[in-house]
From TrEMBL, chains A, B:
Higher taxonomy: Bacteria, Bacillati, Actinomycetota, Actinomycetes, Mycobacteriales
Organism (species): Rhodococcus chondri
One Pfam family here: MarR
Name recorded for this polypeptide: MarR family transcriptional regulator
InterPro entries with a match to the protein in the record: HTH_MarR-typ (IPR000835), MarR/SlyA-like (IPR039422), WH-like_DNA-bd_sf (IPR036388), WH_DNA-bd_sf (IPR036390)
SUPFAM superfamilies in UniProt: Winged helix' DNA-binding domain (SSF46785)
PANTHER family: MARR FAMILY REGULATORY PROTEIN, TRANSCRIPTIONAL REGULATOR, MARR FAMILY
Domain of life: Bacteria
Residues annotated as domain HTH marR-type: 8-141
Amino acid sequence: MENQRSIESDLGYLLTRAGMLVVRATNEALAPLELRTRSYTALSLACDRPDGVPQRQVAADMGLDPSQLVAIIDELEQRKLVARTPDPNDRRNKLIVATAAGRDLCAVAARRSAEVTERYFGSVDPAALDQMREMLGQAVFPDTDRILR
Amino acid sequence: MENQRSIESDLGYLLTRAGMLVVRATNEALAPLELRTRSYTALSLACDRPDGVPQRQVAADMGLDPSQLVAIIDELEQRKLVARTPDPNDRRNKLIVATAAGRDLCAVAARRSAEVTERYFGSVDPAALDQMREMLGQAVFPDTDRILR
DNA sequence: ATAAATGATTGAAAAACTCGATGATTGAGA
DNA sequence: TCTCAATCATCGAGTTTTTCAATCATTTAT
């Protein structure tokens, strides 16, 4: 006898739906900053690494085709939130490095983003939430010892 | 001092990335059945309710614009996996009801889908997984006492 | 009976995705 | 040193997805 469960308990379904909801709410929350979830994520990845992050790696971290990042970075660069600097060690690479203005905006955006998360997950036990982060991190970054903080 | 965390511990980011990964892997797993994650989800929602589910509710449950469902249901209907039956109580509604063939295919697809989930989350404690389902369910179906099974 | 609301459908425009091609650069090996 | 294959960012074309307004049929409220 099969343990038949409804689609509404399917992890893929739940993940996708929850992701959609959070992304949409985040897009609204970031609209006043003229950021979308996408551009905020890219900016944030740049802010995480003061020395800059290869554009290609931003694409990989976002699960996007590298060609999709061109427009996103173009816009951030035009707004002077990031700069494309040639990697001195490998001039094929463009290192995306956040400007001071970029870091400032990112901090504001991070607060708004956190408010959205709070709205959806504020009522659950923080330890359980950390555990969920842990599980998702394992799924998203397999074979990695990276500690999320 | 702010508790500054990297984007990689942001729940929205993790949810989105994990969802993408699972959806893509599920699409591949379902390709031999000529189903995509989208059509499988719609079919599954129909299978969950023997008396049929209003097309509009399928759209709502999937977070899609109703117009996007037309093509999805069209295809399932052409393949005789579901039928659009007029709701006797409100003839504006189309009730999507799964056929026997639809239920059979859905069962096969569910197994393949579960294998994908197993691949990404098989190594984590089942209780923690249930807890994650619970948390995501709360976020996706707020103000609902629905018990996921 | 009329008017407002709701559901499915269509079509058009915008956004996102995919993929192959290109030029610049690097690294390996003859 | 001189190819040659590989890698990176970018571009462009073609496809798919999303968004949204309009339409028709039906229902509900007035």
